[in-house]
Fold this protein.
Amino acid sequence: MLAEDRYRLYTEKFVADPHAAYEQMRRKFGTMAPVDLAPGVPATLVLGHATAVRILNDPHHFPADPRTWQETIPQDCPVRPMMGYLPAARNSDGTEHARLRRASVAGIEGIDLYTVDLLVAKHAVPLINAFSEQGSADVVSQYAFPLVLHVLNEMVGCPEEIGERVAAGMAARFEGDPGGMAILKETLMELITLKRSNPGNDVTSRLAQDSGALTPVEIFAQLMSFYGAGFEAQRNLITNALLLLITDDRFRSGQVLGRNLSTSDAIDEVLFNDPPMANFCTTYPRQPISIDGTWLPPHQPVVISLAACNNDPAIRGSRHGGDSSIGNRSHLAWSSGPHVCPAKNVAYATVQSAIDQLLDALPDLQLAITPAELVWRPGPFHRAMSEMPVRFPNTAPMAIV
């Protein structure tokens, strides 16, 4: 495969209209397309829904362990921080995966879903108050980013001072800075030490006290999965669903086909049409294998395009198929198979509460620019706005309970 035949997923051109690129790839290559995740980093992008489900449910032929592959890429490769191996459930299979996932699930299931609204409100109200009297704000930097980080920090039991360093490391990691991972490891190992001596009712304490005797590095790896997926996916889902709510006439009028549309309807539609992690769930074939007439080389990344698969004409007819995605949760945004996201209920509740808090406080919120003027962050994995400027009538601060 010549380099010029590969679609480059890291460019501004791609993120400007990824669905057009997916459709071009599908017409040219079918269900499997050759792409570059970064300069000189080839991969195969899965565009077919049935093919994705097959791969995600076949860890024997498509393991999630990247260690052989990552030996072939330089240390400063921009996708290495996101794709590099950690002893976490997401990078493991078989009995090791079962052991690590059981610990992760136990840590996450200790989060009381009935308290998520209160937790989100605790952090959302001060953030909204900081800009409500100004009549304008950037939802990305002034609301979604800090809110999600504050909520995640509290769920994992992270004190404010440590949490600030987590924020710096996480921001660097998602921008491809290799130094971000070093910051995160140092910071989260400090948190683990703290929680082993002073446990509380939080994810880190449950992992640290787990009867399966996870090592500190394994606890760190599970926390990285929780932070990594939760941070990027939730902040993007907040902004992307909010964009739909305030710009789409179906939601602005509150009615479609006689139904009252809600925040959850917008979230479901975004998860179907434009999931916040658009291309993810990477696997690495053990040996050469043919799928849908395409030979996949061993140990090279096979990336599921959750966005393209959800919009596969074989299951949708057309991605412009009216309201077929409203209330429909049969998408792949949370993955499928043994690596399905264990925190999807917590994430969904957090995002829904975050949007409702903002719109309850500022019901006349409007986009300050046209949707065509929005700038999307380059990168092969996420579907994320660089900023989301909004305007609204100046509003008095809310009381903090």
Q: What stands out?
A: The longest helix spans residues 216-247.
